[in-house]
Amino acid sequence: MAKAISMSNSQLNLSWKSVIFHNRTPFEVEVIGYLPEFLQAPIPENQDEEQGVKHPQQKIRACDTFIWGIKSLGEVTFKIKLLSSEESQEYQVDFILSQDCKNYQVIITEENALYWDVRKRLGPDDPNGIKKVHVGCGPKNIFPDWWNVDIRSFQGIDTVMDVTKTWPFQDIDFVYGEHFLEHLPLDGAINFLVSSGNSLKLGGKIRLTTPNLAWVVDSHFPVNDAPTHAKVDGTFNINRAFHGWGHQFLYSQEFLEYLLSELGYEQIVCFDYGKSDTPALTYLERHGKSRKKNNLSNLIIVEATRGTGKISVPEQLAKQIEVRFMRYYLGGH
After folding, report:
1. Residue 292 has what pLDDT?
2. Distance CA 204, CA 1 (A)
3. Which tens digit of pLDDT belongs to each residue from 122-142?
4. How far apart are CA 300 and CA 210, in angstroms?
5. Which position among 166, 189, 193, 298 has the lowest Cβ density within 10 Å, counted as fewest Cβ atoms?
């Protein structure tokens, strides 16, 4: 159980610390904190009290991340309960809030809850380092058990790199990108798929989540005898889907599977939101939720495996991409 350091608030120069909980389960999770009694943090209304020590509680949605701001030092305990429809599972994590660390990470799965000491992480180029690369993660989706890369130097990014260029890593287990691929021009996306694929070890997997073009067309623009105002709104909506948020190219499931296959990937499989046959790839999605219309999902979630061959662009595919799209994309009028 948590122990307080025997000093008063006035004797301590306390700074805010973030305890970040990553819920990688399909269930809501309840977290109860057992914290030093000189805790300085907003206490949720739902709390209990034991011997003068407050125990704040927080529920975290399935497949979500919650950041708990704490201004304190000393040993802390968090009791974690999976609120599933079956028998609830409970876990406990203990660690120490210290002056020299402001970021604490807890990963919750259906099997356990683990505290990750971010100060002891090693990169993919180390034999004992993290062999999972999270691309285009930005500042809000940092995973402590993945190596986080982005082209911009946000706080928490492990390596600043252009993933469309040759990668500095080899023998990677997994590559993951969520709402990333659509932000690259098609030629840049192909370069990324080649570079990341050749960094994977034999049998390594890439997992990508991207908007589904078929769903966009079906849900954003009404056809046939829809009223005028609906088509006016739909014109805005479908152009926003194509051009908003920095989107460069939207994929149908068929096209993305075709592209991966032509590049040399094997075992190409699409999954529902959060699902995977590979435990390391389950419930990673954070950016928006899955929804369906007319049996079409708004997201494509695909996994592909590095086979024995080199990932490369065959001449026929390069010509097809150039003739069917890139010359018009780059050529203007």
Report:
1. 84
2. 41
3. 999 999 999 999 999 998 899
4. 5
5. 166
What is the predicted pLDDT for the residue at 12? 55
Residues in contact with 263: Cβ distance below 8 Å, sequence separation at least 6, in sequence order: 190, 193, 194, 197, 311, 312, 313, 317
pTM of the model: 0.88
Residue 332 has pLDDT above 90, yes or no: no
